[in-house]
Amino acid sequence: MPASRVIAIAAPIGGGKSALAEALARTLGSTTLCFDDYETATRQPVSHLSVWLAAGADFDQLEAPGLAAELTRLRTLAATPELVFEMPLGRAWPATAGAIDVLVWIDVPLDLALARRLREITATVQNPAQTLDWLTAYLAHYTGTIHGVLAEQLRVVRPRADLILDGRAEPAVLVRQVLDFLGKTP
After folding, report:
1. Quick one: residue 45, left, alpha or beta (phi over 0 = left, psi -120 to 50 = alpha)?
2. Is the pTM of this model over 0.70?
3. HSE (CB half, 13 Å, CA atoms) of 46?
4. Which 3-state string (H, E, C) describes 96-143?
5. What distance in Å separates the CA atoms of residue 97 and residue 80, rounded to the nearest whole number?
6. Distance CA 48, CA 41 (A)
7. Is the pLDDT of residue 186 over 70?
8. Which comes out higher in pLDDT, residue 132 or 70?
9. How many CA atoms lie within 13 A of 63 on its CB side?
10. Is the distance from CB of 2 to CB of 101 less than 8 angstroms?
11. Is residue 70 scored above 90 in pLDDT?
């Protein structure tokens, strides 16, 4: 049995990666793998990202222990014809770049992505004082570092995409566009 075709989904934080990956995997009946379940950068102080940016933003320095091995394992198992890989770094992360068969970039204005992220986070917090404190800190980090990281992601990841989608569209529309690109019927 041939290896699964790896379809990577990339976008900025709040760009709709999870929604598209979940909807696409459900439609294809495929396995999913998510970079965020393995990466360590967001578990570090934001100052680490600032240092990373200042040092040239080498994507190879970002760590996701076990992810490349798990991608290889799932791909080789070929339990499904496709494997949906939620991978914000696309082909820019050398450890998994060669395994990606199709890279889909969700193009979304950063202000819309930020608004989606804030809505998502604030909807889950039950203490308004904690929400305000978190929001104030997040926005300080966003303007100081996170926006720069997202700009670097856009500069490096987007040009390597095989398919660029309008992230303002609903996930169902995006799924149809990916299926069309893959030559699959829903």
Report:
1. beta
2. yes
3. 13
4. HHCCCCEEEEEECCHHHHHHHHHHHHHHHCCCHHHHHHHHHHHHHHHH
5. 20
6. 8
7. no
8. 70
9. 8
10. no
11. yes
